[in-house]
Amino acid sequence: MLVHFVLLVWISLMVRPGKAQNFEHHEASHVALIGWTHAGGIKFDCTGSYIGKNMIMTGARCLERNGTRADVVRLGAAVGSPRDFAIKDVIVHYRYQAEYYYHNMAIVYLKEEPQSVSKIFKPACILSTLPTPATQIHLIGRDAEGVFQKTAVELVDSDKCHEYYSPTKKFKYGALLVCCMCARSTTTTTKCASELSAPMQTIVEKNGKRVPFLVGQKTIGRSCGSKIPGIYTRLSSDGHFPWIATIAGIDFANHDACFERY
Ligand SMILES: *[C@@H]1O[C@H](CO)[C@@H](O)[C@H](O)[C@H]1NC(C)=O
């Protein structure tokens, strides 16, 4: 009887639809979902990244839905150990303006420090330079059906990217500025992270230890299934990197120290 019960629970855990894909801890334990609590449950509508202490980095466009401020962050959903954290406060990039997509960045402060609550939540590092063409980067986050996907992407030269994005109302300077990076998937997959601020990252490996380094977060456009590259906020940009490090109070420029802390 008990054996049957245990077996049933085990089976139901194994075949939860839409949650079947699991990731290595270092790939996804920092990946956060930004949510809004409703009477019927939590509606998640954005992605973010745990970057240390009680801080989640996300987009400025991820803080409000239907006139309501996000109030909860879920960590661990992609590694099978979901845990919700209440949001205490937010800070938006000082140059962000709602009518444009530029400087689409914010830091969300949680009421608790995830790494003190559980060792499985490890903060990601941030790459202070633009990845070289040889760097393998991927996008991680939920697709339109809410399933986590990890998708290899390649950077697209900004001149080339500009051909696809003529300046629009929300992108009045186009995609040429140092603000952004353009990338598209190297495969023909149509399933990849579709939520705003999904992290683009590279895994740095040394002596068998692997650590995620964030390079961008999704801002606009589709990330796969299209020749048209998506646009990502470039974290290493002079207008972004010092801001994150200052607000967070973390020396992200010291890659080795961040690697060691992980
Ligand atoms: C905002 O409202 C729409 C329409 O009612 C709803 O479908 C959506 O889930 C809401 N979003 C959030 C994050 O609550």
TrEMBL record:
<dbReference type="GO" id="GO:0006508">
    <property type="term" value="P:proteolysis"/>
</dbReference>
<dbReference type="InterPro" id="IPR001254">
    <property type="entry name" value="Trypsin_dom"/>
</dbReference>
<dbReference type="InterPro" id="IPR051333">
    <property type="entry name" value="CLIP_Serine_Protease"/>
</dbReference>
<protein>
    <submittedName>
        <fullName>Hemolymph proteinase 6</fullName>
    </submittedName>
</protein>
<dbReference type="InterPro" id="IPR009003">
    <property type="entry name" value="Peptidase_S1_PA"/>
</dbReference>
<dbReference type="GO" id="GO:0004252">
    <property type="term" value="F:serine-type endopeptidase activity"/>
</dbReference>
<dbReference type="InterPro" id="IPR043504">
    <property type="entry name" value="Peptidase_S1_PA_chymotrypsin"/>
</dbReference>
<feature type="signal peptide">
    <location>
        <begin position="1"/>
        <end position="20"/>
    </location>
</feature>
<keyword id="KW-0732">Signal</keyword>
<dbReference type="Pfam" id="PF00089">
    <property type="entry name" value="Trypsin"/>
</dbReference>
<comment type="similarity">
    <text>Belongs to the peptidase S1 family. CLIP subfamily.</text>
</comment>
<feature type="domain" description="Peptidase S1">
    <location>
        <begin position="46"/>
        <end position="249"/>
    </location>
</feature>
